[in-house]
Amino acid sequence: MKENIAVILAILAFIILCGLSYYLLIIKETPYYSIIDNTQYEKINEREYRYSLVSYQANGKAKRIKFVTTRELIEGAYIKLDVMFLRGVVRWEEVDYNDIPKNAQIKIPKISKSVELNQHFFVYYMWTQKLNTINVVKSDIYMIKFK
């Protein structure tokens, strides 16, 4: 009888361990939010860029996340990164600032919609809530989409 209980407990422990592993490795994604800073990437080759951005969870917890894209991303765009435990970033998408949770918004700089076009450059003003400073940034972007 005691041997049967030991075998049943071992089987239950194995099933629980498998279920937990499946959940952590296959199902659970943690969303992180960030703003694209094109000074924070390295060009791997002609078609790949490795970004390293400070990103924030919905609760405001910060973490530096590294991911690879096949193109240079738009400077100042807000992104949502879906991160898995061992696999890292499994997908990313551009989001609107208002779609970012409030605790993460506090930590991410907000870009105003003041835009001045000058030939092939645009200048935007970034207000950093932490520093209360205005930064002027130039980029080679031709089309700008604001909501």
Short structural description:
With 147 residues, the protein is of the alpha+beta class. It has helices at residues 2-27, 102-105; strands at residues 29-35, 41-45, 48-56, 62-69, 78-84, 88-95, 110-118, 121-128, 133-139.
Describe the overall structure.
The longest helix has 26 residues, at 2-27. A hairpin with a 4-residue loop joins strand 8 (121-128) and strand 9. It contains two helices and nine strands; from the N terminus they run αββββββαβββ. Helix content is 20%, strand content 46%. It is elongated, with a radius of gyration of 21 Å. It has 147 residues and is an alpha+beta fold. The termini are far apart.
